[in-house]
Amino acid sequence: MRILSKRQLKELVLYSPQHIARLEKAGQFPKRVNLGPNWVGWVEDEVLDWLKERMERRERT
After folding, report:
1. Is the pLDDT of residue 60 over 90?
2. Number of domains the chain is built from
3. Which residue range(s) make up the domain with 50?
4. In what order do the strands lie in the sheet with 3-4?
5. Share above pLDDT 70 across residues of the chain, in percent, rounded to a whole number
6. What superkingdom heads the lineage (predicted)?
């Protein structure tokens, strides 16, 4: 399992940190993992699955 930093997440998902936070709050994006008092990350496989789902949705339309 690999954890993505904010910087690595931004390279994969071209959304602003604020938009990602809104999606997380709405349950539409994988939740962050609290790694320490000032450090969060995202599980890479969950983010890749989220991206794959959007790509599959695109192909169906």
Report:
1. no
2. 1
3. 3-60
4. 3-4, 39-43, 33-36
5. 100
6. Bacteria
Q: Rounded to a whole number, what is the distance in angstroms from the first to the last CA of the chain?
A: 32
Considering only CA atoms, which of 44, 47, 54 is closest in space to residue 2?
Answer: 44
The amino acid occupying position 61 is: T
User: Residue type at 7?
Assistant: R
Written as one string, the DSSP assignment of 3-22 is EE-HHHHHHHS-S-HHHHHH
Examine the pLDDT at 61 and tell me if it is beyond 80: no
Phi/psi region, residue 41 (left: phi>0; alpha: psi -120 to 50; beta: rest), is beta
Name the amino acid, one letter, at 24. Answer: E
> Which DSSP symbol is given to 38?
T
